[in-house]
DNA sequence: CGGCTAATGTACGAACTGGTTCGTTAGTAG
DNA sequence: CTACTAACGAACCAGTTCGTACATTAGCCG
């Protein structure tokens, strides 16, 4: 008698189909960009047909926006899971930097989508109701750490939370976003697993060093 | 009797036409990405016709590669013009960081092209004979500065030139590459002229602080 | 079981897009 | 002046691509 909630118990799938479309679309868009992505190709890599993409999402652009939303949801959740209680300011900011670095290097698709979205001047991001507002939790976290650091006299007092976040993000994003051009030009793959621990320590060293220098 | 060199004195333009095509193409590709760029649109924004694009460049891809090559030539020249004689190691690396930051923020088109090229896994960059090899002069410059810093005991001794270049580039590229998503999500335009001097000082502070911390 | 709707598949079309064909004109060499 | 070639233009073509019209099936409700 396991009663299904009112609607949505129709078992010719629906939810699963939508999820599958989103998965495939994420890969396709991240791989080829918005203009380069092919709706037919996404459909082909799905169990279902192109018809369903239009049935559930309405069109290429709306599908892309949903993909973006789901991707951003990922980091936002990761950010909310960060816990720095019990760490001193320097340890806390280093921890956050390392987690950010880890998350970015492990989610190349997301970084690629962000790059793509920037090429399009974030016009789709702006169209998304879920994303355009949605304040980001990291900033509050960083603000808190910076405040503690200042109180204890171990951090410079002119450091701004958003700026520090940008500094950390820069170094965490770069190896992923520019992996191929950088790799080709300097003969060094910035995502080489063997170098990863090194870069991870480097982000931490960098932010902490910056925050410790006098204002 | 001003004799023109053997050929190429034909004055129904040619060189000028090619340059114009390249200029327009640079904007179009940077604006819409490789797949999003339209050959017809490039032609329309030119004094000439699409026929000429194929006449001079062979096709969309070859044109794009030429655009890339010209864009990269820009920074390479800027890099070669950097002069740090007479500066102490910290001053030298700060100067380089600031110039890199200036150059990147002033050449958004180039940064966008690099982003686009990374989406395509640098496949076109690899196809370019001019670019694929062409060692980059900055690395040597940085190596020299780091060596001096180590000798004088003012820099950590485990800093690598390519890594330091990546650190500087990260922070210089980010505001341009992620201007729109970052701006939308954090309500702060990272390229706002009013914040520029601040970020410029920040890159310098960051690298110098990093290099000064003990290994 | 009959009917109703959500879910799905097939085939198609209109517009676009990279690339080409064919022909023309400007300038120069002889 | 004539012949020749580099430079150029207009129209066109074939393949693609987003989107849709139409038909169909699965499952549920009464």
TrEMBL record, chains A, B:
UniProt DNA-binding region: 38-57
GO-annotated biological processes: regulation of DNA-templated transcription
UniProt keywords, alphabetically: DNA-binding
Gene Ontology MF terms: DNA binding
Superkingdom classification of source: Bacteria
Domain HTH tetR-type: 15-75
Pfam families, A to Z: TetR_C_29 (PF17938), TetR_N (PF00440)
Gene3D superfamilies attached to this UniProt entry: Tetracycline Repressor, domain 2 (1.10.357.10)
Name of the protein: AcrR family transcriptional regulator
UniProt source species: Streptomyces iranensis
Lineage: Bacteria, Bacillati, Actinomycetota, Actinomycetes, Kitasatosporales
């Amino acid at each position: 008698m396991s009663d299904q909630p009112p609607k949505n118990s129709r078992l010719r799938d629906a939810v699963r189909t939508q999820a599958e479309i989103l998965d495939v679309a994420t890969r396709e868009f991240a791989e080829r960009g918005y203009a380069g992505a092919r709706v037919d190709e996404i459909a082909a890599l799905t169990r279902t047909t192109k018809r369903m993409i239009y049935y559930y999402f309405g069109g290429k652009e709306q599908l892309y926006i949903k993909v973006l939303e789901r991707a951003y949801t990922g980091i936002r959740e990761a950010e909310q899971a960060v816990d720095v209680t019990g760490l001193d300011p320097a340890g806390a900011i280093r921890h956050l930097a390392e987690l950010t670095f880890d998350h970015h290097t492990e989610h190349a698709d997301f970084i690629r989508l962000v790059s793509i979205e920037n090429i399009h001047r974030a016009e789709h991001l702006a169209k998304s109701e879920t994303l355009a507002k949605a304040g980001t939790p990291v900033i509050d976290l960083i603000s808190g750490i910076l405040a503690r650091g200042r109180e204890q006299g171990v951090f410079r007092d002119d450091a701004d939370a958003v700026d520090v976040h940008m500094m950390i993000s820069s170094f965490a994003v770069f190896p992923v976003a520019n992996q191929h051009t950088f790799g080709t030009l300097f003969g060094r793959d910035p995502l080489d697993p063997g170098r990863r621990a090194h870069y991870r320590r480097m982000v931490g060293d960098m932010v902490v060093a910056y925050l410790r220098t006098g204002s």
